[in-house]
Amino acid sequence: MADLSLLQDSQEDTDGLLDFVSQDEMLTPLGRLDKYISSENIFNRQMVARSLLDTLRAVSEDERDCVSVLEQIDRLADDPEPTVRAELMEQIPHIAIFCQEHRPSIPFAFSKYLLPIVVRYLSDQNNLVRKTSQAALLVLLEQELMERGDVESLVCPVLVDLTAPDSSDDVKTEAMAIICKMAPMVGKDVTERLFLPRFCEMCCDCRMFHVRKVCAANFGDMCSVVGGEATEELLLPRFFQLCSDNVWGVRKACAECFMSVSSASSPEVRRTRLSSLFISLISDPSRWVRQAAFQSLGPFISTFAGPCSSSGQFFRDEEQSGSQTHSTDAETVCPPQEQDESLTADDSQKCLPSSSSSSEEEEEEEEEIPEQELFNSFHFWRTPIPRLDPELELEEDRRPPAPPLDRKHLQELIENLEPHIDDPDVKAQVDVLTAALRATALDSGLEDAFLEPQAARSNPFSSQQPSEHLSADIQRRVTRDDDDSDGSDCCLNPEDERKSKQQDVVPQALLEQYLSMTDPSRAQTVDMEIARHCAFSLPGVALTLGRQNWHCLRDTYETLASDMQWKVRRTLAFSIHELAMILGDQLTAAHLVPIFNSFLKDLDEVRIGVLKHLYDFLKLLHQDTRRKYLYQLQEFLVTDNSRNWRFRSELAEQLVLLLELYSAQDVHDYLRPLALCLCSDRVSSVRWTSYRLVSEIIRKLSSCSSLLVSFLGELVEKFCHSQKWSGRQAFAFVCQLSIEEECLSLDQFSEHLLPPLLQLASDPVPNVRVLLAKTLRQTLLEREYFVSSVNGQQEALEHTLVSLQTDVDKDVKYFASVHPSSTRLNEDAMSTTSSTY
Question: What is the sign of the dihedral through the CA atoms of 746, 747, 748 and 752?
Fold first, then answer.
């Protein structure tokens, strides 16, 4: 009986629900909106908010009804339940877009009804409503749905008031974050007048570090909006304060945005002030700050690139003679006279490091033992001989002291860390500061060039014709780098070695820190992935330094190329073609080709990086060097995992591009076997890509009739007469591509490919006949050549088409009978043979 009573109650509830639904369906959209907007059930009001857009669409043809819906939105905005208000705010951007599309019928709908709700919710007491309104505001700005005057007069003052000192910490932090995101959207004028003063004030907020962290995280965006003048006058002093903040999270945020700040600064400020500031972040006591600083080191160095850095990407003409090439390459990399027409002798001197700094760097590099010689017996029995250079000491005595402010700051940092020297992290930072202090002493000539222009004028490097000396020096470096023999380096006298180690693009201390990222101790004290970050930013650093300074990065690049972590080598493999464009063909052949060859024999994870840009790299090589890789292309067919079919698919795509780099004979001898092998791959995607490769090979061989006839005969034998139906289907597809892409003349096609193609009309597999019918109807008969009586195959073509039109398979009959234009109208019929492609 209990079960029966429950069943009766359930039946009554169901009947009541059906009555409710039937009554609800009888209501108009506005009636339904009026009914549920005042419901005591929260979920009903939420459903009203979600259905507002549908209601507007339903009444969009009546302007009065649209206004009524907008008035109900204003009423719903006063709902006491936060979830209802948040749901409404999520729909505001969609409603605003609808109102914009129907602007003639609903004028001023957004500014009168919707924008006040968004502005009011920005200061709502509920956190969820505030965050939803902030997200909606950004969407409205991105879609350009708000008038500039409304943003400046209504939105910006509210956000500035929310960052007032008496606001709560959460509200202040959220408001500052939305201000920083709005700055790029509202432009420089509004940002400088309304946002910049409060932003500078919040950078010094002593009560809550969360506000300072938000400012630090968005500092680069703010600098890029206001420009260089306001950045150097107002923002940089605040940035220096944030970089020395007591909270490590703030300093870490500064390190992450350092590149953007540097890009908005002038070259002089970047070199004199930001460089020393970045050194302090690299030597920060917090490991997280050091980690972020080293990750930003490469991007920061890239901001030192001059306007002529991109010229290093252009290669010389291969027809030029060797002597002319060296001179042209050296001057094209970065001609000093073209960097800045207003470059004075003082400015040119500022870009030159001291020779003693280069000498010490060279001695340190010479003392490093190559990896393959770590167990050389010679290193065990000999007594280590300290390297002393009297000239270096005398030169240091003669050198004027470095600026006292930077040295004093570094010395204070070292003194503060010395009591904690037992900590490995602290010891590593002391070593970094000591190296920076030594670099400051050795590089004092460079700093004096900025601080004492009069002394720089008397320097022998700043002559009246600096371009001639620099061009000759660059040419000498390129000539030295192109020589593969180590003996030539040993024959240089100490003076030439010092000159060969000079670079005048970035401060030497920054470059030394970047080169130290390959030190194994860095992985222990900073970041296990530091080598990968170094590899990732190396092309940018190389572009900044230019090919004339490749000697500074060569050892680091070779160290990364032999790193134990495959992710590091993979990163280099994906960017080696970019580095080749920067260095030019001479340095590429000497230094990158051996590393490229080692990547070819590496893991598949590394080889895929080389394979994806195989064409981009090989096209930069000399023809003789490029031809050597024809013998190695077949190695890509062998993978660590046979299921890695995407590797073979990428190979087929690269081979299509490589066809233009080789002669017809080389394509026939080396690339043709690879293409035929890929055409028989087990994976369909690889095969269909390879069929396109075959059609391009036909195009390449069309210039040589003997090679073309041989290849076409091979296609007929291997595919048209294949025992597998997929091979015969492939032959029809290759024939179709050859005509559509005009890979060979119609006479050649009619003579060599058309007769065996027509034989497929009697193929027992319907899929083959379907593709044959589509090829004949949609490709061949579209050409006047096959319709006219001039063609001797016209009768055979018509006979084959008639037999296909009476085929037992309905799909074959359809594609043989219907005109190609009508097949586009029937997508269902086209989809029946989509599997054939």
Answer: positive
